[in-house]
Design a protein that fits this description.
This protein has 231 residues and is mainly beta. The protein is elongated, with a radius of gyration of 21 Å. The protein has one domain: Porin. 9% of the residues lie in helices and 52% in strands.
Length: 231
């Protein structure tokens, strides 16, 4: 998580073309951009998803191997006042994780690859400072509903047949921060955000004594996004 935080900070401040926006007396770009009632845009970005496991009894942890995924989506923003905006950011998030279950000798039983294609529906409140020349910091947070297209929830097979199952719907809260840069032709906003699932996503195996799921009290997604927004 520290690595992603430092990477996000670097992306916010080290882009040479953006550093000029911090001049004391810049020529103001897009002066009326924030006065419109509705704003539209899109975002591209990266993600890294993880799982947080809670256990019934003390035992070896289930290991999670993470990978880099990508995000793409649309933005609709409603201006509430000078400092607050309400945002809807429907997006497609693709990621892959590999779970390593303890207690197995054979790799085909111990390893489960979890590929997920998420359709995310976040409703967020964006709180900004007063505009400072051609840039403006902000914090953002809210709730989201996520549809997991690769959940296998309806599958009759379980881990005994090599199928790892999760719920289709995930409910999350999201928190992040970023900076709006007002360029000549558009507003560019790099940001970093954490996402944290609220509900238990694991569907237990048919066998109540399953070596894969019987000791898991809860499994919840958590992840981090680095997004680049264009409005």
């Amino acid at each position: 998580m520290k690595k992603w935080f430092l990477m996000g900070m670097g992306l916010l401040f080290l882009t040479p073309s953006l550093s000029a926006q911090f001049n004391e007396r810049p020529i103001l770009n897009k002066e009326n951009e924030d006065k419109k009632l509705l704003n539209w845009g899109y975002f591209l970005g990266f993600n890294q998803y993880d799982f947080k496991f809670d256990y019934i009894d003390n035992a070896q942890d289930i290991l999670v191997s993470k990978s880099l995924g990508f995000n793409v989506g649309l933005i609709g923003e409603l201006r509430l006042n000078e400092f607050l905006d309400l945002r809807l950011e429907p997006g497609l998030h693709y990621t892959s994780r590999e779970l390593g279950f303890p207690g197995f000798d054979e790799e085909r039983e111990a390893i489960r690859e979890v590929k997920s294609t998420y359709i995310n529906f976040p409703l967020l409140l964006k709180a900004s400072t007063r505009r400072l020349g051609n840039w403006k910091p902000f914090v953002i947070g809210g709730g989201s509903m996520t549809l997991n297209l690769g959940s296998n929830e309806d599958s009759l097979d379980d881990n005994s047949a090599g199928t790892f199952r999760m719920t289709k719907w995930v409910y999350n809260y999201e928190l992040g921060f970023g900076i709006d840069f007002y360029l000549e032709y558009f507003k560019f906003s790099p940001s970093i955000r954490g996402v944290f699932a609220i509900n238990d996503e694991l569907i237990r195996d048919n066998d109540p004594n399953s070596p894969w799921t019987s000791n898991v009290a809860a499994m919840r997604t958590r992840g981090i996004f680095i997004n680049f927004t264009f409005e």
